Amino acid sequence: MIPCRKTCFLIVKMLFKIKTFLYDAMKHIVEENGTVRYRLLHIVDVSLYVYWLIRILFISLIFINPELFPLYRYDYASLYFWNHRNILNKFFALILILFVFTGLLGMQTFFFNNVNKHGFQLIYDCIVRNTDQYYKSRDTDENIAMKLSQRFENYQQQFARNHRLLSQITPIANRMVSFKVWRDSWVEMDRIDKNLFGKINKMRLFPNASIKGRNYILLFVLIMDFCNYCLHIFILLVLLIGAFIVIYFQISQFDIVQNSFVLKLSLMIELILFIHNTFVMLQCAMLLSGVILATYHAFHNQLANMNQNFMKILKNSQNGKPINMTVLKELRFIHIEHNTLSYYVLHGDKTTWSQALYYYALVSIPINVLFMCELIVEDIPAQTEFVFILIALIHVITGLIPFITLAHVSSAFHKIKDYIPAMQLQLNRSTHIRMKLKYDDLYERLMSGKKIAFTFGYLGNLTFRGLFEAFLGYIAAFFLIMDVVLFSSFHL
């Protein structure tokens, strides 16, 4: 009974950690980095991925020369690939090798990097510290109940005015009003003391972030963790069902497996390792998407608020409102904050993300191109085509959404340059000379200086133009690999 209880406890603990995956993962990476347990845990992860890399390379030998390397006579995995070689061909093996490299790249980026770098501290500030400060700022239960009750009464009266017929059906009306109260209570942050959250429990690297912007980050982390939890359960079910079908109905029927206890045991061990490695790759992908989108919310919301205030000052000055000391103080704050955020992007990109995104692009583009080549050239069943198309679409979407958001951040950084010349005309040459010089320098850097953007390493800046150039590179890689595929198919 005791081992069973311990096992159940560990399973529940694991599921709970998946429910708060982003928060726990970043806390684990930053706070436990360098400990013996941390190094041992992730060295084992890397070792398992290296094992699978060697395993796939070993299987690939049968596609090079099946007569010289008749591995399908002794190895159940090689035999399975050989029996289904119209689908699991050499290009499919190459896709698997690239996926293994993607997993290794993800582990190197997150688990074997210097967490004292600015990029990791930004992520920790957005995901871990912001969440901790939220719970530290939680209001009393009495105040929360009072806010929810007041919101319910206001919404109920508004619903009765706008929907007289529906309001007479009490159960439906109460259910709709309750849902709106629940939704808006999170959006409007009824559960915290806003004064405490905004003025005392601040973020360390984003102390000037608005309460609304910090709320968006928090809601994103909560939603992302919920989606990640559902995705883990779904992938686990798919893997277990797929493994049962493949192993029980196909691999277990092979004579080499039925006649060898060692191969049966090896099959079970490799199945467990395969599921583990799949989840590690999934978690690295979720980490990459999550940290990019979390920092996107931090940068974009603050930049949007600054740009809005700048345009408001410009509009007021053009309408004849004088530029007093309060306005000058706001302009000085915008200038300093813009420079600070620019440093965060440029320094964090240089020390943390540039090379990681570069290698990710070098691995991801061939994966997607090979999927397309398989669909166009190979004669595969319709069900397999659907699976390939689904995997390719998921791969494209999960790669594009984070990159598009980073390109949007770069656009927000440079948006202010369109309004600086008009503001310079409103500033007085004699009394506002220092402010004019500061914004003149900012305008020059935005127009002719280094682009304020994340980068693909040597491939270019991660802007909308950079993404278009990457798309052209994708087309060039597609035709290059397609030429190789057609050439090999013709000679076969």
Write the layout of secondary structure elements.
Layout lengths: L1 H18 L1 H11 L4 H29 L11 H8 L6 H22 L6 H19 L4 H22 L1 H4 L2 H18 L6 H6 L11 H39 L5 H4 L2 H58 L6 H53 L4 H33 L5 H7 L6 H16 L15 H28 L1
Please give the largest β-sheet: none
The total count of helices amounts to 18
Mean pLDDT: 82
Distance from N terminus to C terminus (CA atoms, Å) equals: 60 Å
Envelope shape: globular
DSSP strand (E) fraction? under 5%
Low-confidence stretches: 6-15
Please write the string of helix (H) and strand (E) elements.
HHHHHHHHHHHHHHHHHH
What share of the residues lie within helices?
over 70%
Radius of gyration (CA) equals 28 Å
Structural class by helix and strand composition = mainly alpha
- What is the number of strand segments? 0
Transmembrane segments: 46-64, 91-112, 218-251, 271-296, 357-377, 389-409, 471-490
Keywords: Membrane, Transmembrane, Transmembrane helix
